Amino acid sequence: MSDLATRLAQLDTHLARFRDGGIVNLINGQDVPGSGGAFETRSPVDDSLICSVSRSTAEDVDAAAKAAKAAFPAWAAMDGKERKKILHRVADAIVDRAEEIALCECWDTGQAWRFLSKAALRAAENFRFFADQAPTARDGQTLFAPGQMNVTARHPIGPVGVITPWNTPFMLSTWKIAPALAAGCTVVHKPAEFSPLTARLLSEICREAGLPDGVLNLVNGFGEDAGRALTEHPDIKAIAFVGESKTGSMIMKQGADTLKRVHFELGGKNPVIVFEDADLERALDAVIFMIYSLNGERCTSSSRLLVQESIAAEFHDKLEARVRNIRVGHPLDPATEVGPLIHKVHYDKVMSYVEIGKSEGATCRAGGARAGEEGWFVKPTLFTDATRNMRIAQEEVFGPFLTSITFKDEAEALDIANDVAYGLSGYLWTNDLTRALNFSDKLEAGMIWVNSENVRHLPTPFGGVKASGVGRDGGDWSFDFYMETKNTSFALGSHKIQRLGA
Hints:
Blueprint: H1 3-21, E1 25-27, E2 30-32, E3 38-42, E4 49-54, H2 58-77, H3 80-96, H4 98-109, H5 113-116, H6 119-133, E5 142-145, E6 148-156, E7 160-163, H7 169-183, E8 187-190, H8 197-208, E9 216-218, H9 223-232, E10 238-242, H10 245-254, E11 261-265, E12 271-274, H11 280-292, E13 304-308, H12 309-324, H13 344-360, E14 363-366, E15 381-384, H14 391-394, E16 401-407, H15 410-418, E17 422-423, E18 425-429, H16 433-442, E19 447-450, E20 465-466, E21 469-470, H17 475-482, E22 483-491
Parallel strand pairs: 7-8, 7-10, 8-9, 10-11, 12-13, 12-18, 13-16, 15-16, 18-19
Antiparallel strand pairs: 1-2, 3-4, 5-6, 6-22, 11-21, 14-15, 17-20
């Protein structure tokens, strides 16, 4: 059999149990149907039914939150070395089931095998990294002042809610859940309704690895009922969310009455700036990779190309040829570079921006049309001759859709790059070190890569500014969110105390 036929046969085996029993919640270690009935999840490849999914209501979220609250004292008090062992077992199990995870996620999301085949392994790395931090997560500092010694320590904040998106959902779930567990928090996880399969797999893996009941709870459902109930629940002390900026704003409002701590990884309209002195072939590779890989459905995609006028014509010609040559196809085919978009709702949104771009006067150099007759496939799209104020240059499309703008000099490039509501990431291509230092310092973005695509290093901070997020993930920054810092001050002598009323 071909690689595609082999993978489809393997997928069928993994999906059989979901077709029969659907996806149910996991609350306090028990499989529980949603009290709101069920909804369907369908594959974006051909819109075929995958299975039914429990639809949770406030009743289910309340049960999950109470389970997390009850499990919290023992999990928080567990020695960090013991938590480390459990989380390493989770990582081992992820590696053992990496193929199953990738197959299910490709079918559930439309992401190409060439990318998701490695996503589970990265998820395992997330668990290993934070597992190794668990023994020292509570450590603080000793700070001396005249006549005083201050000792700081960190404590897990309590039960937390984790709301994850439908793009690379398994890896992003581990990016939030692993540090929360390592810190000593318990978790209620609500995955995106468009991609529930691998969240269920993660909950199973954690349970089988020995995670105590109630430490990780899974509730499926929609944002307007399950999501809102989670963000408003008084027992949930913090919400970690990955998704759209508009949804992040709603979550902040919903959590205001209970003064919830929030961590948001939100949208982006990220610039990739290519100067005439750059290594243009490498820049071209990076530009293409960072917008068309993962179907363009990634928060850090470089969806705005800013290219210097002196090289724009040649760069655009090469770019167009490459974009037209990108292979669109079945996500489980190893040759596929771009698969279908997640859902018809999202397909319609992306296609609407094709018409918006044309109406605004930009030039559609490639794509801009449906690929095939079934599923939610879009041909990789390239617009040139755009200006900074066009909607396709300002708004997040979140698909295989690149908008190119030209600039004259460094000052104009910086002005255009910062002239959006977002500030998640930026990519700079130049061989001028002084320019790279100055430009990156002034670029309004939480993360910047110089002469590189997005290459993540786990200990570094991840997050955005402006409408792109609140807070930072990665390394010790994750523990700053999931833990409270306490300071205890010890007097080192008999200092003078003011006597009132004496």
